[in-house]
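Support request, please re-run this one:
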Amino acid sequence: MYYPDNLVEEVRTRNDIVDVISSYVRLQKKGSNHFGLCPFHNEKSPSFSVNQARQMYHCFGCGKSGNVITFIMEYENYTFQEALKLLADRAGVTLPEIEYSARDRERDNLKARILEAYKEAGKYYYYQLRSEAGKRAYEYFTGRGLSDDTLKKFGLGYAVTGRNLMYRYLKSKGYDDNVLKEMHIFYVNEREGMTDMFWNRAIFPIMDVNHRIIAFGGRVMGKGEPKYLNSPETMIFDKGRNLYGLNHARTSRKGNIIVCEGYMDVISLHQAGFDQAVGSLGTALTSGHVNLLKRYTDNVLLCYDNDEAGKKANLRAIPLLRAAGIPTKVLDLSPYKDPDEFLKELGPEEFEKRIENAGNPFYYEVGVLETGYDLNDPDGRTRFTGEVAKMLLKFEDAIERDNYLEGICKRYRINADNMRKLLAKLAARGEGLPEYEKPRSTSYGSKKDPEGGIKKAQRLLLTWLCEEPEIYKKISRYLSSDDFSGDIYRTVAQILFEQINEGKVNPAGIISRFTNEEEQSEVGSLFNTKLDKLNTKAEKEKAFKDILLKVKTHSLDLKAREADPTDIDLISTVLENKKILRELGELQIELSEDTEEQ
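Re-run finished. Output below.
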């Protein structure tokens, strides 16, 4: 549905971008902006910037940009209408009933049909587990100690041996090939048609938080590779944003969520009474998982396998959870490999004790680091202490850092005063400190740029005019939106210049004029381009004039190349263009002392 611009703008302006993004990302004010770890890619140093004055965000690492609406679209994987509805509800704005476009209606209908087909497939697998053909898989599950109630709770099933039994079944239920292809549980071959991906496998339905099946995992019965097979990502399944078992765990009253690896670990924990367990679907924990966890819990217990892979998974998860501000502890499963094995050997009571005695994540990280050094050797102990000092510097809060310093020094018999001196020395050299990632260089005219950097120059010019709109009045007779190449650049320039003339510069509002996600991100980047540091006012003024001349020269050259060579007025046009460029070169442009730090 098309919403009037004034309604979209009302929703946007009534949702402060810092307030909204702070509910998803931990932000820290630095200068005029707020910074945090980007939720759209994994990073160690914050490069995600939120500008409250402009009501925009920009990541200098991955390039994502936009306003509060595009953030919700990108983060929640929502359409424009869905994001607007969420923000409207948040702000108490009533939206008119949605009238879907034909394209949106077709997309939503397809998603609905896929979900129906997954549900039907899940019922088929569930039925087959209880048939004679599924006896081996049923005995596998019961042999692992699972009860019938647990099988039912998780909808476990069996894919019988056969090339296209599931395909034929879903076809008989009226699903066409377009829907079945989008499910991605079939192999598609031009000669053989569509064949089942899962056969002779115990089936684990993967559900979203609303108990809807969105994918499947399968364990082979007997010999065969791979041992575990998962259906790939689809338009409704993103493994980096879904956690196995969360549909049950989110309603748990245990006050925490246990994160482990495999399907059987999650299921065994639930059966043992630990209904707060989830699994990361065979992948390491991602920022998407962490953001999902943050919606449902204030405490996370890491319970990955007790092996090298599990150790790496813990080390990856801890900083992500710490950056999100989620209190975390690490469970010690030794001497057993995983939660399933632990429960079979020691039972739920002992597992509960392990939860009560779960370890501090920082001590865990230091403990892993310790295994790489001989602390009985003076040199090894010195190098170990240096690495621990760098780890301590990652704590931005002084009280928290000092508490950990005292604890570590006591644990490893290190003189606390000497450790503080070492921290001061490292900090003075800039080692170990959590630095904000510097923006990538956006210098134009690079030899690697086939367009001579014209797009970068146009982005720089738009950013500059957004920050110092009064300059436009001095150059408006020389510059128009037609001087920008590409539909998006030209449209943005036109809207920006109209806003400047009206005295209401609103870059975040310009983004709302676009509903395509890629276009929104590109538009956002047009107002977040940064020059290499310019030290003096004269350097800034020269750089601005160079950029302006580059954009105008490119525009005039392009028009000259497109002109009719037989046009008798062509020579006059060329001479007029040269006059314009000469006047621009002589024009005195005075900028403010300081442009806004981005």
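The chain is about 50% helix and 10% strand. Residues 454-586 form a domain with the DNAb Helicase; Chain A fold (CATH 1.10.860).
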